[in-house]
């Protein structure tokens, strides 16, 4: 392995140097000659009919170059949902058009109905204020239950607020019902998976240029997947041919899912740049981010767990309402269904699972995948109801889980929710968790807390998730309208250094460090001589970007395949140079040698030969050393983990503090343990934020009450404990070349139920018969629960 | 932001003159006003920056009275230490950036119902000194964002009688970290004052029943059984009126226990 830099090395993230010294290049840092500013007119009401929009005064304002309304985009396409879901009765979901700018109706606060392009942002803002929009406010549809019962609709043309009514697996329904009916014990829990605002540090930004000379567009935009964005704009929305549109996602300051999707602002700046013949930039302010970034979660669920008299799980049955907001965002239909329902067997041998999900339109911001995307919702429902069941039947919560765990000799394991898990060892994770969390010392810590007048609780959780979102064949059967492979091109330059063009996009994940570690390991060369190129459709092969903890498992595998091709070809060149047959060539530490001899050439010499092919066997080998591979895996990967935490509750105020948090994860093989630890840390912060702090609240008029940091509580360092993160118990994924599983979302999936379970345990220890509190468990909610217990 | 002019007077007199224009507004540390302007929620024609007015800055102590210039930053009050409870309160306002810019005059002029300084001023029985007059804290805080200040009147100083014992307990609203409920307790030779911030739709106010009980017996136990009515308390997504009423008792007890 190359010194300090191969697989398994905790190499420091090279990209951090530019991020930490302020030399990163984010969209808004870039300025073009002749650039203009776009500002949007956004609805202040949640539901309203656009009677008229008079832009004449705005058009006459100083510096104004153009004003657009929904009228201007009637002829172009809508922004589509990427996943077709069929209802239980076989009918396809309702897919109302999502226009570039609202037309006819505004459907949520923040819905853009017009845009001004002006010389400066301030001029554009002034002109937006001069737009006279006559919007007749209608009663807002906010609450999902009310929406399903309502006789007025977010989208009048579909005549219902239900997008679909999905059953998974419909054929399991009767068996699940029967298992519950005949069970010794059934535990029921109603819960809310609270809506979250993604809050990427960098708000969205899009800047378009149009070149009249060759009818080409360049869009710089905050995206997690530039090719997907291009595809959506080209094939669905504006119809710009893909070969005429370059999409560049430069440094992007966090996404967490919210920057997977194509948004209307991207289409608007492209259309505007063509119309006025100058570059157009739009940068969201924080309020726009709150109001218009696709939110996450927002499920209301009833879950039942049936057990036999020994505590064996017989069935899980859930009924969920999933809020999709006012429009279908690109992954909004996949998230509450296939990324959620398929995980509803958890880590367990449970024979029956049935999941019903009703997706509901409301006059709120669109809801889509957010770190974990469907899997946190699944884990939360399962691990909360299991905890409640343990209490009800008087069994230790860890013992109950262990009793029902899939055992290591059962892989591959076909889960009752339709997935085939390839590998895992949940007992080993639990063993390790018990050890590193010093569970034995808990009772003493509880006593110490009680001495201070605090209630201490212990919470546990076991999760499994599906990562490496890919297998195109599988997702195609499940309704995906895109393939989910990824791609890499490895270009060995003549002087022996490498540029690796990847389809994955790095916006905090550390690809620029981790991917070179893989290539360096394979070639035995210095990782510093390898650079990753990503985020620019004119430079990289067609890849599907970064989300669903897929980058290393899918794109990393493509990198491996492309590097294997490089090695094959390089061996042929080396064989020619060494006058040997390629079968005898060995590659070690960056040197090709003929087995059993001292004849050798270095990797650098081979590279040079490839580009200066003098005396080259051109009839057998092409010059150059550059290979591309597309990789489409056979299955998802299945990371799993055992988490626990300890909390203290102040009984006087209801305030919860997380005293410790332990995450033991099976990520398969680990390429860079430091980056993996960092990813888990970030996920834990978000999970604790969801559990205790983040309270996205719309009032009954559809106004977002928590639309700024004055009311939306982001977790801060002093809200979080020091973490114990352990990934020593990896079981290699059996079907990708690196044996990796994905680590980006685990922390956000595993921690929320852990925290809630711990708070319930704390309250119970104080003699309070509280069995559930909805997230976020604010001091007020915890205190109220204690009053009512 | 909308466009505005800015003036930078060097004396209170110049500042007063500059503020005589109807659409002029004083600018202290800008920690409340600048975000408001950025959101286009205010459109003064002229800002009169008080930052350069030297006579409004600094802290002095004489005859048991601590005088804090109206332009003194939270950081400077935090560092002073001669009125411990006040310095501790200042040290817990906002974040380092806010404390290095924000001023006591700006905070007290703004009278946010969840702000900290109003509790200290009312709890200490302070006097608000302006370019025109001296106003007792009891007469100064009128209601939410409402004060006795007249048009263009400038807070030049706040005078705090230093009590025997005092303490401020803030239960933070977790997002803004202003007070969800904050209680300032001060014990003087004349009795005890208890000022509550964050809780009421009327803004900062005194809790007279607690003052009476504590004046007889300055101990947390003296408050046992005393409750606050939830009527007219603030209810929002961070807490109901009942919860705030409960917190007033809890925070008062804690302030008494911690007073020094
Ligand atoms: C992130 C953040 C966190 C905060 N947290 C807290 C907190 O925990 N507790 C808390 O109490 N506050 C908090 N604040 C508010 C902070 O203390 C402000 O500094 C203060 O409220 C206003 O003071 P300023 O000097 O910045 O005034 P400015 O913002 O400049 O002005 C505020 C208002 O007062 C007027 N004004 C300013 N100075 C004077 C004067 N000398 N005489 C008359 N009128 C004047 C202005 O015209 C304006 O109307 C926070 C603010 C921020 C941004």
TrEMBL record, chain A:
Under the heading SUPFAM superfamilies, the entry gives: CO dehydrogenase molybdoprotein N-domain-like, Molybdenum cofactor-binding domain
Q: Which GO terms describe its molecular function?
A: iron ion binding; oxidoreductase activity
Source organism superkingdom? Bacteria
- Can the keyword Oxidoreductase be found in this entry's annotation? yes
**Where do the Aldehyde oxidase/xanthine dehydrogenase a/b hammerhead domain residues begin and end?**
21-139
Record-linked SMART domains: Ald_Xan_dh_C
List UniProt keywords, sorted A-Z: Molybdenum, Oxidoreductase
Keyword Transmembrane among record annotations: no
Q: Name one Pfam family in it.
A: MoCoBD_2
The cross-references to InterPro entries, in alphabetical order and at most eight, read: Ald_Oxase/Xan_DH_a/b, Ald_Oxase/Xan_DH_a/b_sf, Ald_Oxase/xanthine_DH-like, AldOxase/xan_DH_MoCoBD1, AldOxase/xan_DH_MoCoBD2, AldOxase/xan_DH_Mopterin-bd_sf
Quote the protein name from its UniProt record: Carbon-monoxide dehydrogenase large subunit
From TrEMBL, chain B:
**Where in this chain does the record put each FAD-binding PCMH-type domain?**
1-165
Q: Does the keyword Nucleotide-binding apply?
A: no
List the keywords (alphabetical).
FAD, Flavoprotein, Oxidoreductase
Q: Does the keyword Protein transport apply?
A: no
Gene3D superfamilies found in the cross-reference section: 3.30.465.10, CO dehydrogenase flavoprotein, C-terminal domain, Uridine Diphospho-n-acetylenolpyruvylglucosamine Reductase, domain 2
Q: What InterPro entries does the annotation carry?
A: CO_DH_flav_C, CO_DH_flav_C_dom_sf, Diverse_Substr_Oxidored, FAD-bd_PCMH, FAD-bd_PCMH-like_sf, FAD-bd_PCMH_sub1, FAD-bd_PCMH_sub2, Mopterin_DH_FAD-bd
Q: Name one GO molecular function term.
A: FAD binding
Among the Pfam families in the record, one is FAD_binding_5
Q: Indicate what this protein is called per its UniProt record.
A: Carbon-monoxide dehydrogenase medium subunit
What organism is the protein native to? Litoreibacter halocynthiae
């Amino acid at each position: 392995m190359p010194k300090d830099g191969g697989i398994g090395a905790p190499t420091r993230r090279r990209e951090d140097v530019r991020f930490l010294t302020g030399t990163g290049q984010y969209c808004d840092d870039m300025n073009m000659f002749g650039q203009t500013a776009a500002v949007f007119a956004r609805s202040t009401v949640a539901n309203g009919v656009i009677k008229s929009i008079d832009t004449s005064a705005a058009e006459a304002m100083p510096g104004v170059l153009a004003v657009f309304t929904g009228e201007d985009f009637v002829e172009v396409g809508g922004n589509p949902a990427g996943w077709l879901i069929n209802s239980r009765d076989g009918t396809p979901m309702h897919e109302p058009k999502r226009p570039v700018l609202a037309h006819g109706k505004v459907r949520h606060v923040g819905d853009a109905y017009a845009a001004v392009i002006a010389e400066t942002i301030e001029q554009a803002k002034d002109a937006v204020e001069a737009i006279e929009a006559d919007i007749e406010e209608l009663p807002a549809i906010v609450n999902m239950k009310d929406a399903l019962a309502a006789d007025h609709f977010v989208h009048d043309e579909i005549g219902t607020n239900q997008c679909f009514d999905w059953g998974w697996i419909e054929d399991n329904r009767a068996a699940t019902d029967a298992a519950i009916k005949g069970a010794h014990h059934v535990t029921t829990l109603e819960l809310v998976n609270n809506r979250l605002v993604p809050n990427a540090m960098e708000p969205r930004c899009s800047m378009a240029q149009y070149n009249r000379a060759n009818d080409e567009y360049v869009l710089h935009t905050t995206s997690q997947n530039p090719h997907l964005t291009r595809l959506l704009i080209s094939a669905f929305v504006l119809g710009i041919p893909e070969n005429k549109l370059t999409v560049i996602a430069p440094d992007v300051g966090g996404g967490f899912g919210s920057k997977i999707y194509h948004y209307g602002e991207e289409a608007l700046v492209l259309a505007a740049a063509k119309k006025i013949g100058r570059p157009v930039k739009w940068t969201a302010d924080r309020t726009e981010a709150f109001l218009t970034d696709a939110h996450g979660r927002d499920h209301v669920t009833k879950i039942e767990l049936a057990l036999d008299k020994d505590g064996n799980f017989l069935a899980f049955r859930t009924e969920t309402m999933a809020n999709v907001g006012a429009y279908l965002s690109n992954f909004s239909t996949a998230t509450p269904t296939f990324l959620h329902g398929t995980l509803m067997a958890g880590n367990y041998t449970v024979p029956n699972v049935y999941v019903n999900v009703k997706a509901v339109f409301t006059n709120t911001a669109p809801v889509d995948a957010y770190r974990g995307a469907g899997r946190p919702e699944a884990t939360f429902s399962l691990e909360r109801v299991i905890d409640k069941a343990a209490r009800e039947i008087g069994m230790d919560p860890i013992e109950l889980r262990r009793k029902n765990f899939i055992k290591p000799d059962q892989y591959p394991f076909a889960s009752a929710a339709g997935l085939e898990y390839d590998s895992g060892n949940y007992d080993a994770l639990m063993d390790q968790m018990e050890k590193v969390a010093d569970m034995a010392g808990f009772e003493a810590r509880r006593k110490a807390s009680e001495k201070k007048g605090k209630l201490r609780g212990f919470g546990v959780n076991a999760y499994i998730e599906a990562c490496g979102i890919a297998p195109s064949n599988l997702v195609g059967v499940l309704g995906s309208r895109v393939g989910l492979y990824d791609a890499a091109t490895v270009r060995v330059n003549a002087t022996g250094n490498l540029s690796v063009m990847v389809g994955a996009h790095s916006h905090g994940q550390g690809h620029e460090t981790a991917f070179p570690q893989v290539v360096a390991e394979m070639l035995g060369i210095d990782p510093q001589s390898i650079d990753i190129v990503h985020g620019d459709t004119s430079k990289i092969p067609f890849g599907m970007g970064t989300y669903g903890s897929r980058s290393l498992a899918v794109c990393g595998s493509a990198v491996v395949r492309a590097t294997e091709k490089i090695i094959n070809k390089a061996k042929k060149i080396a064989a020619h140079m060494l006058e040997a047959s390629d079968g005898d060539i060995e590659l070690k530490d960056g040197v090709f040698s003929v087995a059993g001899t001292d004849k050798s050439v270095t990797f650098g010499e081979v590279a040079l030969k490839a580009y200066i092919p003098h005396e080259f066997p051109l009839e057998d080998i092409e010059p150059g050393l550059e290979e591309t591979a597309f990789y489409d895996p056979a299955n998802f990967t299945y990371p799993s983990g055992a988490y626990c935490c300890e909390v203290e509750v102040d009984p006087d105020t209801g305030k919860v503090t997380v005293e410790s948090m332990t995450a033991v994860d099976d990520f398969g093989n680990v390429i860079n343990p430091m980056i993996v630890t960092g990813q888990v840390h970030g996920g834990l912060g978000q999970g604790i934020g969801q559990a205790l702090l983040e309270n996205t609240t719309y009032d009954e008029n559809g106004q977002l009450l928590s639309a700024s940091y004055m009311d939306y509580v982001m977790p801060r360092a002093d809200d979080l404990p020091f973490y114990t993160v352990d990934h020593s118990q990896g079981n290699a994924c059996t079907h990708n070349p690196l044996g990796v599983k994905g680590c980006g979302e685990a922390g956000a999936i595993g921690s929320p139920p852990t925290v809630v379970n711990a708070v319930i345990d704390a309250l119970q220890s104080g003699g309070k018969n509280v069995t559930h509190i909805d997230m976020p468990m604010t001091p007020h909610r915890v205190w109220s629960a204690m009053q009512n217990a | 932001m909308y466009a505005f002019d800015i003036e930078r007077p060097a004396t209170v007199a110049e500042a007063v003159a500059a503020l005589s224009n109807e659409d002029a507004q004083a600018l202290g540390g800008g920690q409340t006003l600048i975000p408001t302007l950025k959101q286009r929620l205010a459109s003064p024609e002229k800002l009169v920056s008080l930052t350069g007015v030297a006579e409004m800055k600094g802290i002095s102590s004489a005859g048991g009275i601590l005088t804090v210039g109206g332009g003194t930053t939270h950081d400077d009050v935090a560092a002073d230490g001669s009125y411990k409870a006040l310095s501790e309160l200042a040290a817990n306002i906002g974040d380092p950036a806010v404390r290095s810019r924000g001023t006591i005059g700006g905070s007290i002029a703004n009278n946010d119902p969840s702000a900290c300084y109003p509790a200290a001023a009312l709890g200490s029985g302070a006097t608000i000194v302006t370019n025109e007059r001296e106003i007792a804290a009891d007469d100064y805080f009128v209601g939410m964002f409402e004060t006795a200040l007249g048009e263009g009147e400038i807070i030049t100083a706040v005078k705090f009688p230093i009590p025997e014992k005092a303490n401020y307990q803030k239960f933070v609203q977790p997002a803004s970290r202003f007070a969800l409920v904050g209680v300032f307790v001060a014990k003087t030779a004349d009795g005890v004052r208890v000022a509550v911030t964050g809780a009421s739709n009327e803004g900062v106010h005194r809790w007279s029943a607690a003052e009476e009980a504590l004046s007889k017996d300055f101990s947390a136990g003296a408050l046992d059984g005393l409750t606050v009515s939830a009527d007219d308390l603030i209810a929002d997504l961070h807490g109901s009126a009942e919860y705030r009423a409960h917190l007033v008792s809890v925070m008062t007890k804690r302030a008494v226990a911690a007073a020094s």
